[in-house]
Amino acid sequence: MAVFREFDSRGRDRSAEDRFRHRKLVDDSIKKNIGNIIAEESIIGKSKDKKIKIPIKGIKEYRFIYGKNKPGVGSGKGDEKRGDIIGSDEIEKGQDIDQAGNNEGEDIYETEITIEELINYLFDDMDLPYMERKKFHEIESEKKFKRLGYQRKGIKPRLAKKRSVIEKIKREKASKRGKQKASNGDKENEERERFPFKEDDLRYYHLRKDVKRESNAVVICIMDTSGSMNITKKYIARSFFFLLYQFVRLKYLNVKVVFISHSTIAKEVNEDEFFHKGQSGGTYISSGYEKALEIIEKRYNPSVWNVYAFHCSDGDNWREDNEKAVEQAKKLCETCNLFGYGQIVVGGYIPTSSIKSQFIANVNAPNFSVVTISRKEDIIPALKKLLKKEEGLME
Amino acid sequence: MMEYTSKQLEKWDKKITDIAKSEGLDWYPQEYEICNYEDMICYEAYVGMPSHYSHWSYGKAYERKKTLYRYNLEGLPYEMVINSNPCIAYLMRDNTLLLQILTMAHVYGHNDFFKNNRLFAEGTKADYTIEMFKNHADRIRNYIEDPTIGYEKVERILDAAHAIRYHTRRFIGLKELSREEKKKRMLDKYYDDLKSTGPLDDKKEITFPCINKIPLEPTDDIMSFLIEYSDLKNWEKDIIHIVNEETKYFIPQIETKIMNEGWASHWHYKILSQLELPQGLYMEFLNRHNQIIRPFYGRINPYYLGFKIFEDIEKKYGKEKIFEVRRLERDQSFIRKYFTEELAVEMNIFQYNKKGNNYIIEEIADKKGWKKLRDTLANTVGIGGIPYIKVEEILPRNKSLVLIHEYDGRELELNYAYETLKYLVDLWGRKVLLKTTVNNSQKTIVCNDDKTITMTGG
């Protein structure tokens, strides 16, 4: 006589742990590939609310499988002839996941995500370094990420660990009490059982817009647009500034941003021109720095403002300008909280007179930071390095 | 709302077992668990074993299945059966009464197959199935909780072990000689060869066998080889052992998918035909049965193929023969021996291959082609769908591991091969080489210990 049982999971969610871990691996793979995703040409210059679809490859379980010349056998309709071409769709649709899991079919998750969310993924733990309290808090800034209470739904980075543990303990206690009642306090069974987290236990920080006075800050973006900056380099530079700009915009609502593009002469441009217009000509890096210093002097008094300056160039400065550029860079270091220089090196050619080596040799300020970017994948690590708070600033 | 009571199920179970007994089926005690839709997905994801150890791949399987069902891309199975004694089967609560009856009859077919098929009887220990999975899970949990090991390290080994999990001994019932026995055999052969060379024979070069090579002869059991010869720590070897034990448990199921489903379908059909079902249930039965054994275009429905072959054997050779077949064969031999031209024609079987982006029909079921179809099918079912790879030797010079892919016309998917080799380097700790054939020429894929991949000719 067969036995029939009602299965009762007692509220236990067996796969929760493994699902969570899998999600985490997927998240990690998003982060790893985010450099490629976010540096796509189509994204640069788009507004932060723009939704983009990104395909994420599933975490594959690799093993030895057959690829080429793998014959298959199947049932047909009876009218098949040798040499017939059959729709690849029908076969592929039919490919089952056989017991060996012998299937190389791609698991592609398509996630819709806004640029804002992407940036959050990237820079969640970053801040503008060396931020100081300046004399006047002129700007009433609305700092976004103020934690205020908890909620049941949220994104992974906002998981409130402690709170979730508390919720779990509550549930555990309640369930124990329930059991005790049922078994009349049978002490024997009180061994510690595994009591895993359930989805319901998880709490996330609730974020409120929080109005608060904040130190004044201005970010000055200086980009080399000279002739030697070819399309690839310009593209990298723009991506770099685009990300920086988004970061600043998202984190600090009222931070001012100044755009300067330079060849042998520099001029202040607006956002649109900065990201979309090209230029050409020779290179006087000092011109860009001069312009920056001039703007700082006119509009952003360093005793009142936190000033951040970033410069991207391929380092192919005209030789006669090197000395001047180094001088100006030193001056920028004196006026700014942080001065970051990103050198874009694409391909094997590295100009011997690169301004980077000059900078490294001659500018010894602690708030000066140099990074090298050679592929679009480098952009994000470079940015992170520049923004890394007060540690290891020199390359 | 359930449309049946458990009393009803018990009543039908009694009727089913009465018929099954009179038909000669022989099974382990049967236990049923009635579960809901989500539990069923969970059972499926965890290969039927909720006590299975944790790994993200099961979380992935769960999400994947759930998504597929949600979008109706795949139907949920009505039942799941575990090869264990007592045999455990899961029934979905939402099934109609007829589906439960049909599933129960089907389950007795599987249960009988588990108890009697040679591969299961020799290759698995049904009495200890549940304990084995539980014990494995406990051991893995202990390693995770060990402060000197921890989750990430365990996961790293599991990831790698899963990548090569099917590279264990393929054939059940072959006696494996010990290293000493093999050595003796090689030496005996050498001395026999020397002796048998008479003074009048042509001078033959008889080389002394390399009796220090590791392994002496290429072995397909890469998992056990790593346990024996790698520098892994004991707990790491234990994890490989655990994964290997699990694969051994599943190989009989992989090797008899068509027979097992065919056998179970054969019996649910026979039993339900004799159950004297009321009209309404009878119509539903015919309907469901035809659903289950319908052909799938462009591939093989194991229920359909197995059902048809067993039906044909019984028609030709009588009832005793099908019991003998279910005891002795596995899918490969089953197809080789009992798949006939008539069946191929009746089921419109054809063979295709991918040329460029198109699938082209290579063979169809006629006088000329059916044997080819049969052989392709026999060679690609079960474990035959997994590339056959052996350990050839450890290079004495730098202890690199040399693997050889036994090429049979099917080439390896290279990206997958590269990534799998990286996992092997994780386990072996040194360079790993794989000899294979790419575009009809011999190649060696090398994965260095820094996991860079190169490919060389020859």
Automatic annotation (TrEMBL), chain A:
Record-linked NCBIfam families: spore_yhbH (TIGR02877)
Protein name, as recorded: UPF0229 protein SAMN02745912_00991
Native source organism of the sequence: Paramaledivibacter caminithermalis (strain DSM 15212 / CIP 107654 / DViRD3)
Location of the region described as Disordered in the Swiss-Prot/TrEMBL record: 171-193
Family: Belongs to the UPF0229 family.
Lineage of the organism: Bacteria, Bacillati, Bacillota, Clostridia, Peptostreptococcales
InterPro entries for this protein: Spore_YhbH, UPF0229, vWFA_dom_sf
Bias (Basic and acidic residues): 184-193
Automatic annotation (TrEMBL), chain B:
Domain SpoVR protein-like N-terminal residues, every copy: 4-384
Stored Pfam families: SpoVR, SpoVR_C
Name of the protein this chain belongs to: Stage V sporulation protein R
Domain SpoVR-like C-terminal: 387-436
Annotated source species: Paramaledivibacter caminithermalis (strain DSM 15212 / CIP 107654 / DViRD3)
